[in-house]
Amino acid sequence: MEQNNQSKSAFVAIVGKPNVGKSSLLNLLLGEKIAIVTSKPQTTRTRIMGVLTKGAVQFVFLDTPGFHKAKTKLSTTMRRVVTTSIKDVDIVMLVVEPRGALTESELSLIENIKAAKIPAILVINKTDLYADKSVVAERIAELTALYPFDAVVPLSVAEKKGTDALLSELTNYAEEGEHYFPDDTLTDQPERVIAAEIIREKLLLFMQQEIPHGTAVIIEKMREREDRPILDIEATIYCEKASHKGMIIGKGGQSLKRIASAARADLESFLDTKVNLQCWVKVREDWRNQESMIRNFGLSDDS
Q1: Range of the domain at 219
Q2: Is 266 labelled as part of a ligand binding site?
């Protein structure tokens, strides 16, 4: 679409500790699921870009991994992705919950925002969980005492409330100029990457807590059949221990079938076509501490 002189764009980083609803917020803003969502930490591993064009204004959102203490080379990379993203945008959205002690990670994020000297909006998610609005007010007072946020937006992703106010605030930081992406762009993520993430989401949802964090998914093949409207997808699930491989596959292959079946349903919805999904499981011991494997799995921050 041809742009005019009033076109504006804003690059926005979405940051916060794990499980505050960053990816859910991105999906709600875009009206489409491009970031996987579970209740487990480390669901988001890389920076995911989502693009929303509303009239003359284009928002480019960067959904970042939950900021947490690094225990492996992979988690060190994830922390670096967050701090780099803060420096690369026009404005930062710090997403927090209404109640609970502030974590070391959240305090560190505020320090990073201070150091970057960048505009920041405080987003209080999950307000639907507290009928007593004084809870939200107390949280706002606590955080604004630590940093002079440019705006504060309470919202509820679960109830789909508050996003209009958030977009209104973000519009103030959009700069004039041509849009960076075509107006119908949703994300810069290739379909193969989104497909791999959908499969990993099902691993996180269905498996024991210690197993999914040590898994990665690679799409080996994605090809449309010439004779029928069917997309053949072949995926390899990598895990760190032989015992984990057995658990992922399950007795008689039942666990893997359940994971693949749920993933296939989401893939068909996202890709709008019938999908034939085949999954295999392989072991790569301690891959999260191997730089070469992290790069091979597309999780490095040097791209």
Answers
A1: 191-296
A2: no
Closest CA to 203 of 58, 72, 40, 54: 40
The annotation status of 172 as a binding-site residue, yes or no, is no
Residue 7 assigned ligand-binding role: no
| Residues 17 and 151 placed together within one structural domain of the fold | yes
Query: Any idea what the CATH number is for the domain that residue 80 is in?
Result: 3.40.50.300
Question: According to the annotation, is 289 in a ligand binding site?
Answer: no
pLDDT for the residue 33: 82
Instruction: Say whether 214 counts as a known binding-site residue.
Output: no
Q: Is 23 annotated as a binding residue?
A: yes
Confidence of residue 297 (pLDDT cuts 50, 70, 90): low
- State how far the Cα of 123 lies from the Cα of 97, in Å rounded to an integer: 8
Q: Which residue, among 135, 182, 179, 171, has the nearest Cα to 154 in the 3D structure?
A: 135
Q: Which of 122, 116, 8 is nearest to 59 (CA)?
A: 8
Instruction: Output the pLDDT for position 75.
Output: 53
Instruction: Please write the tens of the pLDDT for every residue from 24-36.
Output: 999 999 998 877 6
Q: Which of 115, 144, 176 is the last residue of a domain?
A: 176
Distances (CA, A) of 177 to 30, 56, 119, 152, 181: 22, 10, 19, 27, 12
**Has 229 been labeled as part of a binding site?**
no
- Judge whether 127 is annotated as a binding position: yes
Work out the average pLDDT over 182-189: 86
Number of Cβ within 10 Å of residue 300's Cβ equals 18
End residue of a domain, out of 176, 203, 222 = 176
- pLDDT band at 189; cut points 50, 70, 90: confident
pTM for this entry? 0.71
Domain annotation covers residue 214: yes
Domain count, the chain: 2
16 annotated ligand-binding residue = yes
In this structure, the answer to whether residues 133 and 14 fall within a common structural domain is: yes
